[in-house]
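During the second half of the funding period, the structural biology subgroup turned its attention to how the target accommodates small molecules. The most pressing case was magnesium ion, which had performed well in the primary screen but for which no bound structure existed. We therefore specified the complex as follows and requested a full 3D prediction, including the ligand pose.
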Amino acid sequence: MISLGIEGTAHTLGIAIVEKINEKCKILSNESRMYKPAKGGIHPREAANHHAMHLPSLLHESIKKAGVEIKEIDLIGFSIGPGLGPCLRTVATAARTIAIKYKKPIMGVNHCIAHLEIGKALTGSHDPVLLYASGGNTQVISLLEKKYRIFGETLDIGIGNCLDKFGRAIGIPFPAGPHIEKLARKGRKYIPLPYSVKGMDVSFSGILTAALSLIKNESIEDMAYSLQETCFSMLAEVTERAMAHLEKEEVLLGGGVASNMRLQEIMKKMAMERGAKFFVPSRQYLVDNGAMIAWTAILMHEAGYRMSLGDTKVRQNFRTDEVEVKWS
Ligand code: AMP
Ligand code: MG
């Protein structure tokens, strides 16, 4: 089965063609374009305009690169939520248009579940606890009784959002995470910051406020280092607690922040010390991408899910645990 997947929940428009062949995920193309605001944070309508503008050319690029014809595509997948309303609606409109014009079935995919499924497919992880650490989302997710349940999550902003806001305050453009990672490597002194773990949940906005209040007096490198060490230790703690609670022996990373080598190192060490396995896909499948949508659409379709056009209304607050996981 060949699927076309369109991702567009926030800043990134991704279009991919994926084939399921011999039970394996074969990615034929995975193209993307990222909206980067000239200043400030993501403006939802501008991001949606970016997606609308780039959609036709990216679609052609992706199909051309995959070397398939549109008639060979069996299914149209798109990110139905959670995400920014204008971005979701733009992508849903495109997916509906393609589905109607070429008479293909359509499948709205939960974005967070898609991160997990592409990670599993590409790394060989079977039953992981996923740390999904991205711009807008930070969740610890795992399968329990046919649902991907959230065992821990941020109570306020996502980890990536925390890094991006800190970066903006010190003049680093969006996305600031990779720059902060470089700065942090040069940090030498740990500056104490609030450590905010509440049961299985985390919170970043207080840490951000504290870090911003200290930037005048401390070196930027030490601040970047301290911010990363504090936030990443919190993420390792709640992920480990979920693993212990669920007695699961695999940890998988997803989301753009997971491309941070220091976060990977901390999580890998935690896994090793527990005798657990550590999995992380390559960067292009950590950040938002079309392949994860195309692949999850195939899993859903093969498990018997069907959507009429009326079912494709976007779901800004779509929760990970609302979907019955019939395919796992
Ligand atoms: P996503 O929302 O999953 O596409 O990921 C985007 C987020 O990941 C943004 O907040 C980026 O700042 C962040 N990010 C990307 N690369 C890194 C990195 N190397 N270290 C930390 N954060 C990163
Ligand atoms: Mg994401």
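Two results from this model are relevant to the next phase. The CA atoms of residues 108 and 312 lie 6 Å apart. The first strand starts at residue 2 and ends at 7.
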